[in-house]
Amino acid sequence: MVFSSIIFLFFFLVAVLAVYFLSPGIRIKNFVLMVFSLLFYAWGEGELVLLMVLSSLFNYGIAFWIDLKRTTKIPLIIGIAVNLIVLIYYKYIGLLVGSFDNLFGTHFNNGINIHLPIGISFFTFHSMSYIIDIYKKKTGIQKNPLNMILYISLFPQLVAGPIVRYSEIEHEIMHRKHTLLNFVNGTKRFCLGLAKKVLIANVLGEIADELFSMQTNEMYFATSWFAIIAYSLQIYFDFSGYSDMGIGLGQVFGFNFPENFNFPYIAKSIKEFWRRWHMTLSRWFRDYLYIPLGGSHKGNFRTYFNLFIVFFATGLWHGATWNFVLWGLFHGLFLIIERLGFEKTLNRAPFLGHIYTLLVVVFAWVLFRIPSFEEAVNFYRSLFLFEPLDSKMSFMRWVGSEQIFIFIIAIFLSMPIRGKIEQIKMKISNTVIIEIWDYSAMVFYFILLLLSIMSISSTTYNPFIYFRF
Hints:
By secondary structure, this protein is an all-alpha fold. It has two domains: 6-176, no CATH class; 182-413, no CATH class. It is 71% helix and 0% strand. It has helices at 6-22, 25-45, 49-68, 74-104, 120-135, 145-153, 166-175, 180-212, 221-252, 270-276, 279-290, 300-318, 322-348, 350-369, 373-382, 401-413, 417-426, 431-458. Helix 9 packs across helix 14. The chain is globular. The chain starts with 5 loop residues before the first helix and ends in an 11-residue tail after the last helix.
C-alpha cells in the first residue's frame, strides 16, 4: 500500500484516524497505531510482516543484553551482525551469487528467487541505530516490546523514510501531544507531499519512462538530456514528496520526524548536496560508519578511504546492482576531489559550483536509472551526439505541452520559492491581510488535495520507486 493510492486515502487513512483519535489514553493509541502499521505493511508484503516483528523483538532483546554486559561489545556485535545477515540475505544474495557466477562460470543464481521485503533497508537501519545508541548510552531502553514494534513499524516512515532514530521520538512515544495546530500543519504537509508525488513526479516519470524506453542508438543530445533531467526532477519530487507525506502524517499523530530534503539542487558542491539530499541517511552513515572508521582525524589517506567505504555502502544501500555501487562511488570520487582543494575554487565561484554540482549529480543519475552498465555507457555517449538534421527522432515528438509545463514548474519548485514567500508573509503587519493569506493558503492546499485525488482516480500510472530499498 502506498500513500498515493485510493485505498490508502479513503479507506486505510480514514480508518486509522477515526480509531486512533477515538481511543482513550496514549497506551491504547500506541496499540492502535502499531496494529494499523502492521496491517499497512502486511497489505503488500503478506507474511513478511512477521520478519519485521521478529526483527523488532530481536533488537528489543539485544538492547537489554547490551545494557547488562556493558564491559563487552559482544552483544552489540551479534546484534549488528544478525541485522546485516538478514539484510544481505533478502537484498544482496542475488547480487553476490550472480557476481560469483560471472567470475567462475557457475549457475548458482538460476535457482535463487528471494522476494525483497519493501523498506527492509529502512527498518534495518532503524534497528541498528537503536542498539548502537543503547551501547553508547545516547538513549534509554524501550521496556515495552509493543512500543518497540511500534517504533520499527510506524507506517508514516516505514517504506520511504525519513530514517528516524529512536532517540528522536523516544519521549514522544509515551508523552506526545495532539493539538489542532499539529493536525492542521501535518495535513497541509501531507497534501503538499501528495501533490509533489502525483501532480509532478508521476508526470515527469511518464516522460522519463517514455524516453528511456527508446533504444540508446536512437537517442541524441536533446532527447537524452531531456530524459535524464526529467528523471532527476522525478526522483527528487517523488522522494521528497513521500518524505513530506511521512513527516506530515507523523505530525498528525503527534510525532516530530526529522527533515529529509532541503532543496538539494541548489547546492554548490557535492559536499553540500549530501547535506541537503536524503539528510537522514547522510547523517546515519556519518554517525554510524564514517566517524567510527575514524572520520577525517587520521590523515588524508585514511579520510579518503573512509569516504570510499561510506559511499560504497551508500550506493549499495540504494539497490542490489553494481550500477548503484558505481553511483555511490561516483559521488565519493568528487567528494575526494573537493577535499583535495577543489572546494576552495568552488567557494570563490558559487555560480560555477552550482553548474558543476548539477552536472555531476545528473550524470550520476544515469547509473541510478539504468540497471545495465553497458546501456548506461551507451546513454552517456548519446548525451554528446547531436541529432542529424534529417532525423525524425526528437523528444518533442514524445512530449506534450502539458508535460513541458509541468517540467518547467518542477524546475522552479526545486528552488526555495516557498521560503521566500514565507519571508514576505513575516514582513506583513496588517492582521486582515494575514487572515486573508491564511484562508487563501487553506484553499490552496484543498485544491492541491482535490487535484491529486482527481489525478490518482484518472490514471493507473503511479510508480513506487522505493521497492528496491
